[in-house]
Amino acid sequence: MAAPAARSAARRLLLPWSARLVRASSAAQRCVHVGTGKLTVSKAAPEVILNVPETRVSPLENGLQVASEDSGLSTCTVGLWIDAGSRYENEKNNGTAHFLEHMAFKGTKKRSQLDLELEIENMGAHLNAYTSREQTVYYAKAFSKDLPRAVEILADIIQNSTLGEAEIERERGVILREMQEVETNLQEVVFDYLHATAYQNTALGRTILGPTENIKSINRNDLVEYITTHYKGPRMVLAAAGGVSHDELLDLAKSHFGNLPSAPEGGLPPLPPCSFTGSEIRIRDDKMPLAHLAIAVEAAGWSDPDTIPLMVANTLIGNWDRSFGGGVNLSSKLAQIACHGNLCHSFQSFNTCYTDTGLWGLYMVCEPSTIQDMVHFVQKEWIRLCTSVTENEVARAKNLLKTNMLLQLDGSTPICEDIGRQMLCYKRRIPIPELEARIEAIDAQTIREICTKYIYDKHPAVAAVGPIEQLPEYSKICSGMNWLRE
């Protein structure tokens, strides 16, 4: 997805299985030694595990956090994670954060767009960005030896972009074309509708790109005002991973970001409140071959303790596609039913987290004639999670969740993303042993209790596009959330 130098990739699902390792006692490194042909681990072993490798965190005086993990690679990823996405916009300037992301690569006071592109190309580096509903990210991938140049370039494009009128007009056309591209991706369309109905009349209900009329009217003053209001030290994290010296990164941060403004006297703009509304959006189009729909309940925010059980429950439901083949033999009960009954082309369970809320549900693609049955079995499986999920199923889901969590941390870029996102969401980086301990503490009873809390007798948000005549009425869907009425 996205534009040449900048990405709006975070509109894709951000599954919250992030985590890595935090600081541990350096003395613990001495507590593992090799004995007679065996690896002998002392009582300090848990501390040792925490230190492989450590994530070091240092604040600047202006509130900016510097966080890094040195894995000794010859390459690195470094980026700025900014607590400023489309959620901080209003109806009039919705789309500004994404527009600004595009403008960051169009020239600064000391580099033209051509100079910037040539410098990045000559370094063999990659410069990229994306905008989500709560965060904006600018990052670079480069050789470790080029870390100083990469940080200096990031600082330049964040603080010194010229935002020229000609470039603004050119990017306006690029974003309008990007919007047309997004509108052909029905999964993105359905999730935008899902947010619009779930968080109606609030900031989370608006799209990241913004409406067409806003894209056509956003001007330089809007972009400058957004930077002035939100690009403050306390809302930023400079994160890096790969072959990175933390002390060097800290010195670079002081040099290039030390003059960033800190919080104003009145404090930073508060997070706009967003309330969930059980409701639906139906866009019927019988000319389309397949129906695309999503159904979700309100879930927990990033730091809520219920998030971990909901992640396990999300893994229990799983995902399936016809191309998988062996659906009847998969661990997911819903996959077995969907495959055996030919109920859908694909489905994907999701758990999308924000600061204070979230969406937990299922996205599915169905033939028009199977929609009703598919929705019925989805809700039946949700009810089963609340009433009769087994210990064996939960144990299998926990193992799969931990595997997926670790596999997502393969390479300096996902690790850097993990550091930046967690520092914004949790103000620290959660150690993997801590996260694994939280997952291991969950049993079938926990899943039943948490799923009952979030699913039982709740009014879900529903978004559906395509030939959806057979989609049950909303009242019928709501009644399916209360098994005592069944």
Please tell me about this protein's structure:
By secondary structure, the protein is of the alpha+beta class. It has 2 domains: 50-257, 2-Layer Sandwich (Cytochrome Bc1 Complex, Chain A, domain 1); 280-485, Cytochrome Bc1 Complex, Chain A, domain 1 (2-Layer Sandwich). The protein has 17 helices and 14 strands. The protein has helices spanning 45-50, 96-103, 113-123, 147-159, 165-182, 186-198, 212-217, 220-230, 246-257, 307-317, 333-341, 371-387, 391-407, 412-426, 432-440, 444-455, 474-479, and strands at residues 32-34, 39-41, 55-59, 65-70, 75-82, 126-131, 136-143, 236-242, 280-284, 291-299, 319-321, 346-353, 358-366, 461-466. A 6-stranded mixed beta sheet has the order 3-4-8-5-7-6, with helices on both faces. Strands 9-14-10-13-12-11 form a 6-stranded mixed beta sheet, with helices on both faces. Strand 3 and strand 4 form a beta hairpin. Helix 4 runs parallel beside helix 9 (246-257). The radius of gyration is 24 Å and the shape is globular.
